[in-house]
Design brief:
The chain has about 190 residues and is an alpha+beta fold. The protein is built from four helices and 14 strands.
Length: about 190
């Protein structure tokens, strides 16, 4: 594995050489290793994924659980060594199937869900938030297992996320990118 290297110099070409069993993300050329998700994290992820999967069955959009590689690029013609933003969201929803390849997705997904853990709070709330907003991810959910809360950020006309809508374990969320999808949080958080 070709780590370490001068900070800020990693690319998707490097990512492809790292061991499959390890989960890495790259932001502006800086590599970050992800911690192994906890059982609670996985149960919450599974509960959300099931609702998205059931709704999207037979529809053109698709949902992918982690690990699923997303290369946040504007131009899908970039070479692997030029791609400096690579993420593995907990849940990814994509509607443009032309950007899916055997390695994952090229571009900004329509929706991303990240489940916070003690080691990922700063990354998910700040670094990924700014990265997803700049890339044009239409809807971004931050799930807080400890507080049983979901913060929903929707990309506005000015290409910035508006104030979040905050939901508790007893709420249902109307997903903005799908007018008829309502996600029930009660079964998602009952595992805790």
């Amino acid at each position: 594995m070709p780590l370490p290297r001068e900070e800020g110099k990693y690319s998707y070409a490097d990512y492809l050489t790292w061991p499959e069993g390890e989960r890495w993300e790259i932001f502006d050329g800086i590599a970050y290793m992800q911690a192994t998700p906890s059982p609670i994290h996985q149960e919450i992820s599974g509960g959300l994924f099931a609702q998205f999967h059931n709704y999207l069955s037979g529809k053109p959009c698709k949902v992918y659980p982690a690990p699923f590689c997303v290369r946040l690029i504007k131009d899908d013609k970039k070479k692997d060594e030029d791609i400096k933003k690579v993420v593995e969201p907990d849940i990814t929803i994509v509607c443009d199937k032309s950007k899916i390849d055997e390695k994952g997705y090229n571009g900004a997904p329509d929706m991303i869900v990240e489940i916070l853990s003690p080691s990922s709070i700063k990354m998910d709330r700040f670094i990924k938030f700014n990265c997803y907003e700049k890339a044009g991810v239409k809807e971004y959910w931050l799930v807080e297992p400890e507080g049983k809360l979901v913060s929903v950020f929707v990309l506005q006309a000015d290409q910035r996320y508006g104030r979040p809508e905050i939901y508790t374990e007893d709420d249902k969320i109307n997903v903005s990118i799908f007018s008829d999808l309502i996600v029930d949080l009660k079964p998602v958080f009952e595992v805790i």
